[in-house]
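Long-time lurker. I teach an intro course on protein structure, and each term I like to show students one example going from raw sequence to a predicted 3D structure in token notation. This year I'd like something fresh instead of my usual example. Would anyone be willing to generate the tokens for the chain below so I can use it in lecture? Attribution to the forum is fine with me.
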Amino acid sequence: MPYRSPIVFWLLRWLRPRERAVLRQVNLARRALGKAPLKQLPTGQPGHMRRCPLAQALDGLVGRCGVAYASHDTARRVARVWGTAYEPRAGRYLVYFPPELSRFVQDYDLHAFPRLAKRSTSPLIAA
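-- Reply from a regular --
Happy to contribute to a lecture. Here you go:
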């Protein structure tokens, strides 16, 4: 659900991470994985671990605290460039997000980045 009050949206805007800072962290990880850097974050769907912008850009499963990879080596390389820890969890390797990415995921799921959200084409109520 998007923020209802323009005042709340405006106030929380100052706490929100800047897209440039998020993109910078994403591109650090992409370079560590041998991928080309992005010029902008992809669009996605809030609340979906495979369809959010970070999941698409990083090619992993995204949760609130990090991104999960099947490969230990992939997780190690991403954790090294972010300066964060990683650990095995549920058959994958979870790389913890730097603070700005963690905040981005939380805010994105609250629809705080409408420009990065794909519009749903399915009706909410079926006739």
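Some talking points for your students: Confidence is low (pLDDT under 50) at residues 122-127. Residues 19-32 form the longest helix (14 residues).
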